[in-house]
Structures are given as C-alpha cells and as structure tokens.
Write a structure and sequence with these properties.
With about 260 residues, the chain is α+β, with helices and mostly antiparallel strands. It has eight helices and ten strands. It has three domains: about 1-45; about 45-75 and about 195-265, no CATH class; about 95-190, no CATH class. Helices cover about 40% and strands about 15% of the residues.
C-alpha cells in the first residue's frame, strides 16, 4: 500500500514538473531566443509598405489583380490565397478536370430586382483548368498562340463574345470535346508554376522564367524600361537553398513593392 501511494505521489510530481518545463519554461526559452537572435523571422517575416503598414509576409503568397503587378502562382487554398485554409487541389496530372476544367449550369434571374423569376439556364466556370490558365496567361502577357481543333487552326473569334472577350465556359466545353478537343499552342513554353498551384496554395515565389515572361507587361503598365524591371527581378530572386536545394525563386511581394517604390521615385 505504501509503495502504491509513493509511486502515485512520484507520478503526480513528475507530471507537474514536466508540465512546467514543457508547457512553460521551454516555450518561453524558445520564444526568447527567437526574439533575440532573429526577431524578424520569429514574428512572421512581415513586410511593411511605404506607409509603414504591414502588407503581408515574405513567406505567404497573396493575389495581385492589377496588370502593373507581377502575378503569383494560382492558389487552391480556400477561395484562393487563404492562409487559414492552406491546401492544394488534390487533382493529378491525368485528371481531365485538372487539364480541361469543368462548367456548371445555373439559372439566371431575369428581373432587375432580387427575387426575379429564373431566366434561361447558362453554363459558367466551375473549375478553370490548365488549358484556360495557359490561354489567360498568354493573353495577359502578350504571348502569341494558336487554338487548334481536329488538327486545324481555329479562329479565336469562335469562342469570343460580342464584346470581344473570351467565353470561358464555351472554351472549357470545347476543351472537353472527346471527338475534337480544343488545344492551345503557345509560341513559347509556359512555366508550370504560372498555371499550377503549389501544394500549400501559398507559395510566395515564382520561377525566374515566369517573372521574365511577365516583365514586358509590367514595364509597359508602369512606363518603365524592360531592363529596369528585369534588374528588379534579379534583386528579388533568392538562390537555391544551401546552394543545392530547389531552384532560384522570385519573391512576388518583395518584387511588387520594390517596383512601387521605383515608380513613385
């Protein structure tokens, strides 16, 4: 009986001791060391804009919509670039959905006011797919391409609206045509990271090739020389980790912020 009581007391004491060490002392020591040795990294590698407000983290990708900015990798994190829902699409390279995209049918309200009677159903994009991303990338960056179907070049107007814009749902339907699938043939290879999301959906870097293909557009939108923009790309490029792991990558947020400062000057 005395042995059981003694062992119970010892167990309780050991539990409390390790709780204090592991849950209290150890985290405080690690936090203190981080704040002392590398405070920037320990606090999230946050980046401030010209107005001293935090605009993001150098380790988290975020979306840029304006044409004057370099565009990051696509993202499947939540609704896109959601740091609270880091994830990939879970679609493999043989997936038709991943390559061709998918559409869904919805009813359109015919009335101007909310609650109008449902109008004719129409197809809208459910998942864009690689082919549509390649086309949009080429369009945005002035890269020539051909649309081909059944071995013949197709007039792009076939898939455009009266406003001259591509009908994405119509394109995806043609991409999924088993008899004569529509394909896109750019004059240059499009980097994989330009049209595919990373496993986390939050990759802050793009490849050097991807950045170089976007340089002309950014230079034009900012009224800068292409060589000036390429020089900023080089400054924002991080080499392979330890010199051997991975490929060089361009930090999109840092690059866009440096261009903002350059444009202001």
């Amino acid at each position: 009986m005395k042995t059981i009581i003694k062992e119970t007391i010892t167990s309780i004491f050991a539990t409390l001791l390790f709780a204090v060490i592991v849950c209290g002392i150890y985290p405080v020591v690690v936090w203190g060391a981080g704040q002392l040795i590398f405070p920037h990294q320990a606090n999230g590698s946050l980046i401030e804009g010209s107005d001293r407000k935090i605009v993001g983290s150098e380790w988290l990708g975020q979306n840029f919509t304006s044409a004057k900015y370099f565009q990051p990798r696509p993202s499947a994190a939540g609704t896109g670039y959601d740091a609270a829902s880091s994830s990939g699409s879970n679609l493999g390279p043989t997936s038709k959905k991943f390559i061709n995209g998918t559409t869904k049918t919805i009813s359109v309200a015919s009335g101007v006011e909310a609650g109008g009677k449902p109008g004719p159903a129409q197809d809208v994009v459910d998942f864009d797919g690689i082919k549509l991303r390649v086309l949009n990338y080429c369009e945005a960056n002035g890269i020539s391409y051909d649309l081909q179907q059944g071995g013949e070049t197709v007039d792009a107007k076939t898939f455009k609206t009266e406003k001259g814009e591509y009908d994405a749902a119509k394109l995806i339907t043609a991409f999924n045509d088993d008899a004569k699938p529509l394909t896109i043939k750019p004059i240059t290879l499009i980097p994989g990271d330009a049209v595919t999301a990373s496993g986390s959906g939050l990759d802050p870097h793009i490849s050097v090739k991807n950045a170089q293909l976007q340089a002309a557009r950014v230079a034009r939108e900012r009224s800068l020389g292409v060589e000036v923009v390429k020089a900023e790309i080089e400054k924002a490029t991080a080499g392979a980790q330890f010199g051997i792991l991975g490929d060089p990558g361009v930090n999109v947020l840092k690059l866009n912020l440096s261009l903002d400062k350059l444009t202001v000057k």
